[in-house]
UniProtKB/TrEMBL annotation:
It catalyses: 3-hydroxy-L-kynurenine + H2O = 3-hydroxyanthranilate + L-alanine + H(+); L-kynurenine + H2O = anthranilate + L-alanine + H(+). Keywords: Hydrolase, Pyridine nucleotide biosynthesis, Pyridoxal phosphate. This is Kynureninase. Belongs to the kynureninase family. HAMAP family: Kynureninase. Homodimer. Catalyzes the cleavage of L-kynurenine (L-Kyn) and L-3-hydroxykynurenine (L-3OHKyn) into anthranilic acid (AA) and 3-hydroxyanthranilic acid (3-OHAA), respectively. The keyword Hydrolase applies. Its cofactor is pyridoxal 5'-phosphate. The modification N6-(pyridoxal phosphate)lysine is found at K224. Its EC number is 3.7.1.3. Pathway: Cofactor biosynthesis; NAD(+) biosynthesis; quinolinate from L-kynurenine: step 2/3; Amino-acid degradation; L-kynurenine degradation; L-alanine and anthranilate from L-kynurenine: step 1/1.
Amino acid sequence: MAITRAECQALDARDPLRDVRDEFALPPGIVYLLGNSLGALPRRTPERVARTVETEWGVHMGASWNTAGWWDLPESTGDRIAPLIGAGPGQVLAGDSTSVNIFKAVTGALPLRPGRRVVVSDLDNFPTDRYVVQGAVAALGSYEIRDIGSGAGLAGLEDALGDDVALVLLSQVDYRTGALRDMAAVTRQVHEAGAIMIWDLCHSAGAVPVEVGEADLAVGCTYKYLNGGPGAPAYIYVAPRHQEAVRNVISGWHGHAAPFAFEPDYRPATGVRRFATGSPPVLSYAALNASLDIWERVDLREVRAKSQAMTSLFIELVDDAGTDLVLATPRDPERRGSQVSYRHPDGYPVVRALADRGVVGDFREPDVMRFGFAPLYLRYVDAYDAATALAEVLREDLWRDERYARRLTVT
Ligand SMILES: *Cc1c(COP(=O)(O)O)cnc(C)c1O
């Protein structure tokens, strides 16, 4: 192999992020390459959640809406997410799921382009993005969806754009292949066609230093690279120029201008707060904020440099092993997020056999094995061990064991 395990250990010793790993509670003997799906548990999260339960809820009870800042959690947490996506204070609201935020963003933004009736959607996007657009269009009536083809680059998008297009919704990083879109270039192209650009940042925030730039709206989740925990609040970004014009269709009391006036009619709050709807899941915000404490201390350029180095190392090692895997991720590190995907007709049993050897990745239909590299807690030696185990599972046909063939509910 091109690089030895000892050389990987030397890289770890020089890694400027090496101490950040200690902030995470990682089970022994596991190489966790699923941080792109559910991030690892920060060591301080349990005590933070326990404090919220035992003290804020158990002792101060309802007073905590004021004294512990519960009421303001969507904004205060959003302000802490903002630097991770290149946004400023008052531009990001944390809450709901990504799916719900996509609905709010799409239905809120469409009226900004009266007369235009087309929503451009990507066939390769994460299914919920497509499903929610389909639901929003069905609910609003008189809009239609124009799908861009598989893997369409800027040229494919150009063909779909026209003076009938109101809005384009795309993911910055493809959840299957890890391919990274040029956000600034795409946003410019969409704006030149007069349409609104909404970005889904689920696979990019925490994986690459995101710059929302000229984007109109953006959404993302916090349980992947951001390590907020299962079901952690998602977020929505609204560019300041749109904040007073965009309406939240799910106009609940938490987004009202004077929620405790208990007026009979809805009046939107100013700013991004109007995107709040109902009572926030306070315990989940506690977990997310424990994770954001870590993000506040790391340099995103170092995260990106380590992510590119680790994914390149993994690709080189798998290349050297001479397997029949087909790389689905761009080789150019500038064109990928923080995951490496391979196509293999028996990808599912291969992933299961790997998990039995302590290397945890996942599988996405029809034939994609995904390996996420979360730079905060993974080491170069983990990339080495994962590549070695993958090569062994394939070389020795270990995946052919019949117990790996049966699909579990979550793949
Ligand atoms: C993970 C992911 C989601 C998740 O949506 P939820 O509503 O949180 O389940 C949505 N879109 C993309 C692109 C994702 O990667």
